[in-house]
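Design job #97: recover the sequence.
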């Protein structure tokens, strides 16, 4: 019988925690004391669990400012009452009904592995094929894309479309639709480009993804928009 070694906590995480203890924690001591009593974020951000797209880093957010839900391909499933386990839906329910956030942002990203797994399904990684079953929820988004599947930018348009589909799925939750219609809650779509760190925000009326800012941090003119009516 092979003797298993006791798990060793990653040194990189220990080093990071030491840096936190010596830097950020003392600098924001009052904030952490206040946060110990509760949280009141105004934004629920639903993003992908990809390690390259941390919302707190992208938006330079401090602790307590974002309520973050991350899963494969930033998917919001349609509201349903059946089944037993609804991790994403439970987090959404808590953010909206419990914390009463004012904004929900669904953020997709470039080179998303979950989107690619739907478009070109790989062999299951386990008998459960959990990824395959989860990304099957991308199917309605794929129907929105008019680009040819062989087009070089097909996956990018599918990423955009999944953001739009997740926004639509949010409105299948009665408590979200009620707050949106009353003006208490706003829904937003975004897409992050990893290579250059570019953020695009979705226009709710046209479906276009517009650069959030230019190189100087200023909002771009309409002529600079990315045309993405597929999403």
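Job complete. Output follows.
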């Amino acid at each position: 019988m092979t003797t298993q070694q006791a798990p060793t906590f990653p040194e990189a995480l220990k080093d990071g925690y030491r840096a936190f203890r010596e830097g950020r924690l003392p600098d924001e001591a009052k904030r952490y004391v206040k946060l110990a009593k509760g949280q009141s974020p105004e934004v629920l951000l639903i993003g992908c669990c990809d390690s390259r797209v941390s919302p707190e880093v992208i938006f330079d957010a401090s602790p307590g400012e974002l309520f973050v839900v991350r899963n494969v391909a930033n998917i919001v499933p349609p509201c349903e009452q059946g089944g037993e386990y609804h991790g994403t839906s439970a987090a959404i329910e808590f953010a909206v009904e419990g914390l009463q956030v004012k904004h929900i942002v669904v953020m997709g990203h470039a080179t998303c592995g979950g989107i690619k797994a739907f478009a070109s399904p790989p062999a299951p990684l386990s008998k459960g094929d959990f990824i395959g079953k989860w990304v099957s929820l991308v199917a309605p988004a794929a129907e929105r894309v008019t680009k040819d599947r062989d087009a070089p930018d097909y996956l990018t348009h599918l990423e955009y479309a999944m953001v739009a589909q997740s926004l639509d799925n949010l409105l299948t939750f009665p408590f979200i639709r009620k707050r949106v219609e009353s003006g208490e809650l706003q829904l937003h779509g975004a897409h992050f480009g990893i290579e250059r760190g570019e953020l695009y925000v979705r226009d709710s009326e046209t479906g276009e993804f517009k650069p959030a800012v230019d190189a100087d941090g200023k909002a771009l003119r309409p002529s600079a928009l990315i045309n993405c009516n597929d999403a």
